[in-house]
Amino acid sequence: MKRGPYAKGAAKREEILSVALEVVAVKGCRKASNREIAERVGLTQAGLMHHFASREELYQEVLRARDIRDHEMFFAPDPTIEGFFAVIAHNAEVPGLVRLYVEFSAEASIPEHPAHAFFLERYAWLRDGLSGVIHRAQDSGTIGPAVDVSAAVDLLVAAADGLQLQWLNDHAVDMVARLRRLWEGIVAVSHAA
Amino acid sequence: MKRGPYAKGAAKREEILSVALEVVAVKGCRKASNREIAERVGLTQAGLMHHFASREELYQEVLRARDIRDHEMFFAPDPTIEGFFAVIAHNAEVPGLVRLYVEFSAEASIPEHPAHAFFLERYAWLRDGLSGVIHRAQDSGTIGPAVDVSAAVDLLVAAADGLQLQWLNDHAVDMVARLRRLWEGIVAVSHAA
DNA sequence: GTCTATAAAAGGATAGAC
DNA sequence: GTCTATCCTTTTATAGAC
What we know:
The structure is a homodimer. The first copy, chain A, has 9 helices and no strands. By secondary structure, chain A is mostly helical. The relative contact order of chain A is 0.10. The A-B interface holds A 27-31, 99, 102-103, 105-107, 109-110, 113, 116, 119-120, 123, 148, 151, 154-155, 157-163, 165-166, 168-169, 173, 177-178, 181-182, 184-186, 188-189, 192 and B 27-31, 99, 102-103, 105-107, 109-110, 113, 119-120, 123, 148, 151, 154-155, 157-163, 165-166, 168-169, 173, 177-178, 181-182, 184-186, 188-189, 192.
């Protein structure tokens, strides 16, 4: 149990982040409202705005918290391709998170959006991690030298994003199996002349 | 010049579809409003609702019109992988369309959404077309027999979707080059044991 | 930290005139 | 086919009390 002046506020914050996902999971990001989220955590809408100044900040912080947790669980100390697959596998357990990510990142692709910078930084961070994965796989000999790392990373990220959209439409889509196949293709080509 | 009782209505409809894209291009799909679209075509919001009964129907019809046009331009009579690349290359010329597609398809991934069925059918249609492409490439010997067609199609569609999101965030992303690389990988693996 | 109250705006939709 | 007028709903956000 945490103590100190911020313990209660922090706990409420966590609760909000978690409940936001439940609402988004069933209503979608566009139709989810701060009011409903607030009421589900036993607050009024005004009460919720004390913790998050805007709808956009709330959603951004949900995703940021996810990234921190995933990083600790699956990537520390060094990212591997299996860790990447594990993140995706874990995503299939949290539909609200996938929906929020797909919908909110699309919404935020407009440069003026409050969360635009967040997603740009996140992309850079993700690309960095995956580049490291490929380079280490080259060092260990798993993967050959003939790879355009940048192109491979773009494809992995794009496929992961696109597969999440497919998965939202049909939970039978096996995101990890598809990504593994892509990875195998990258490995195969990397050994070619 | 078209004649007949529907000529004017049809022309106005086309104009609305086109202007909707301009608005979505700069405001994004979430912030775009029927009112603004209506005013830009010289109508009131109520006037616009005569042509499209709801926001969702309007956006759905924009995308449907796009698909019909793309199909005529790039896929008739038979789809090829180059036609697929040509569609993507063309997308890079119409940012509003890409933004609408990415944002609206994400929004519509919720089963209750009015456009949900549209996107499901579109997926099936797209998958069909790409499956045909692969099978014909096999017949002509371009591609080997060792392909899981379904998996390859999933990856192509996912990558195309994900790359469009990347491209929205950074127009320097070369969607076609990335997709070509994916295709080359699929071709390479298809010749493996 | 949370509430009440309220603003203020905007959105989508409809009825009925022309 | 389009407008006027209007409705109703919903949303985010703020001010100030407790």
